[in-house]
Every structure is written in C-alpha cells, then in structure tokens.
Write a sequence for this structure.
C-alpha cells in the first residue's frame, strides 16, 4: 500500500479542518484575548463626550529600566485616567494590598499579578513624564469576559461599563483648556512609535521581569518574597527555613532543602 497516497487522500477529505483548528487556537490564545479585551474597552471609552475626553490607546513609554505599555489613557479636563484591561473568566479573588490575586475556574486555581500594582507603575511613569501631580491621575482596572469578583473590590476595579461610571464621577475641572490640549500633545510626542521594534523591546523587558521574579522564591500564601530564616530556640535551634518576608502578617513557612525541617 502506498502510504503517501493514502495520506494525500485523507488530507483531501479533512483539509478544511486545518484552518479551523488554527483559528480555534488563535481565539483561545492569551494574545487574542488581550487584543479583544482592549478592543471592547476602546469601544466603551469612545462613548465619553469628545468635547471633554480624549482617548489615546496602546501607549508605550520609555522608562529607566526599559519600557512600560499602557492599554488606554483618557485625558480630560477632570484628570488623566490610566486604564488597564483584563480579559478573564472564572472567580476572581483579591484585595488592594495583595501582591497576587487568584483566578479560580472550577477546581483549578492560578495566581496573577495584582493589576492595581501593575497599573501603579504606569501612573507613576505618566506623572513623571507629564509633570502632573498624583491627585490628577487615576488608575482604573477593567475586567472583560465571564468573570465574577468573589471578594470586595476597590471602586476603581470594575466590570466593563463600570469604568464609564467611575470616570464620570470626577467632575471637578483640574486642567484648563490650554493644559488639556498641551497634555494630549505631550503624550502623543513622548509615546514610542508603534511597530515591530517597539513591541519587541517591550516583550524583551517583560520577559526579563518575569525571569527576575522567578528567581525569587515567593510565598505560596500571599506571593511576597520568602527569606531564609534561622530557628532561634528548641531542638531545631540553628537550623534554617524559608519564612515569609511579611511576618507576622503572613506566617507561611517552607522547609529548607539544606536543613530538612518544616
């Protein structure tokens, strides 16, 4: 039997499934979910009155240690709103101070960086580059997708349409007309030009951050750094163990391979 001929005949029957499988994998990818989530939020933010609000999307800025990328920046006479989008599903657990939040889908749980902490760097970078005060910038986190908050979230962490309500509650003018126009012009000037080179540099920077974090032992309970500590008394006096750096707030400990204690 000619194997190659048989394979060719099989491919003739199912060739149309190949692009379908590719499309399904693309739709399931984190890249597509991120792009789709940003698209949805862009459409929502564009509903803000154009006379008072200007949306600038996909802003990549140069920092001292690389680059930082902001999903959406809304410049208005009432302040600057720095918007971070999360396209996620499942139950979301977290608080403002936790370094890591939890996503739970059925019985599977996974950790992800507190988006408030992630957006804090964006806010501080804009504050420095635009010469604004901290009170004039506002961090906004928008969750897109079939997700449910299972813990009480801060008011600036919202579902899709909630971001419009949150932004509109700031109705005190903090920038004059001239300042408003200057900020838009300044932001368009300082943001890096979109393209392959900019995206590549940002991805390299993100990979470095991830690698640096992976090299630091993290607390399994709260996500903070773990420190090597030494038992001060008892039968294990002098032996070492891993303890959470936030002790006594978090009392998680782990066995050290070198000492064999819990």
């Amino acid at each position: 039997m000619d194997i190659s001929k048989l394979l060719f005949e099989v491919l003739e029957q199912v060739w149309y499934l190949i692009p379908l499988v590719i499309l399904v994998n693309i739709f399931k990818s984190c890249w597509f979910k991120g792009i789709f989530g940003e698209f949805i939020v862009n459409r929502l933010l564009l509903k803000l009155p154009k006379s008072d609000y200007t949306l600038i999307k996909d802003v990549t800025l140069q920092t001292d240690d690389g680059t930082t990328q902001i999903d959406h920046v809304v410049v208005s006479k009432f302040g600057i709103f720095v918007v971070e989008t999360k396209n996620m599903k499942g139950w979301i657990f977290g608080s403002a101070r936790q370094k890591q939040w939890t996503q739970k889908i059925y019985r599977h749980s996974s950790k992800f960086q507190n988006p408030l902490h992630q957006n804090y760097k964006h806010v501080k970078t804009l504050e420095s580059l635009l010469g604004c005060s901290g009170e004039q910038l506002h961090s906004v986190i928008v969750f897109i997708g079939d997700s449910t908050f299972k813990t009480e979230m801060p008011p600036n962490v919202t579902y899709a349409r909630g971001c419009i309500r949150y932004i509109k509650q700031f109705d005190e003018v903090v920038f004059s007309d001239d300042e408003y126009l200057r900020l838009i012009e300044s932001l368009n000037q300082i943001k890096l030009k979109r393209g392959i080179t900019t995206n590549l540099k940002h991805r390299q920077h993100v990979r470095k951050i991830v690698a640096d974090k992976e090299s630091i032992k993290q607390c399994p309970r709260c996500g903070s750094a773990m420190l090597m500590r030494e038992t001060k008394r008892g039968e294990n006096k002098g032996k070492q163990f891993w303890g959470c750096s936030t002790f006594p707030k978090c009392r998680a400990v782990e066995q050290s391979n070198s000492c064999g204690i819990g």
Summary: Helices lie at 3-14, 17-28, 30-45, 115-130, 162-168, 177-190, 196-214. The first strand starts at residue 53 and ends at 63. Residues 58 and 71 are 5 Å apart (CA to CA). The chain has a mean pLDDT of 80.
